[in-house]
Amino acid sequence: MNTVIFFPVVRTVMMTWVISLSTSAGESNDMNHPPRLAFILLLAALFPAWSCSPSQKVHPKVGPMVEAVYGIGTVTARHTYDLKIGVTDTLMKLYVQEGDAVPKGHPLVAFSDGRVTRAPFAGVVTAVNYKEGETVFPQIPVVTLTDPKDPYVVVSLEQSGALRVKGGQPAFLSFEDLREQNLPGQVTSIYPKDGQFFVNIEVSLPAEVLVGMTADVAIQVAKRDNVLQVPLVAVRQGAVKVVTNGLSKTVPVKIGAVDGTWAEVLGGGLGADDLLLVPGK
Question: What is the CATH number assigned to the segment(s) 56-65+225-278?
């Protein structure tokens, strides 16, 4: 069934009603009827809001459709060393502090028996959990050393997304303060851990990106060419509205892949030349 787009008509009728109410209120002294006056003013204020978000008319588009799985990734160091001891001891000397960049073999701490522990690789001291003279307990790291070179990104995914991710798929990363840079990467592995699903992504990162920072990650899981697409916001309950000669009608569509903004049309009565009615913002 065709339906006429009726918002301008409703607005006109309602404005006429407001003017009528306003005239009646003026004749009966509105100052004595504050609720009525407030109601009139509220309606008058709402009319611009009703009319400032008109629907837009757009055509479907035909082009490539890229489907992606999205997640939040954390920049992760490839090498991390936690200095732990096997038996309780006393920390006699601390040679580093947090933030220190040390070369391989640099002394880290000395214990009461004179034993000195050194850095197994060049890196940055990211944690110091004891002070000189304190008792050190087993399994609690004394010092943490991190290699900031050549980090990778770890992404946590929902099960539905993890099922579609495979090694070798391309990925794209963006950081909140580096939005102008869309960094390409590649999935190297996917694995479960503690009831969650993780993906490792190899990517070349700018020097200003540090271990522990997070990024928005899109993993491309499918790509097809010459796909009929409609704006996702135009789809309502498996159908879109098509405008012909000023009238709109509902056309059912079968939706496939979605890239976040556009939706693939797999079937239905929609053509590339149709004019869609898209709700305004």
Answer: 2.40.420.20
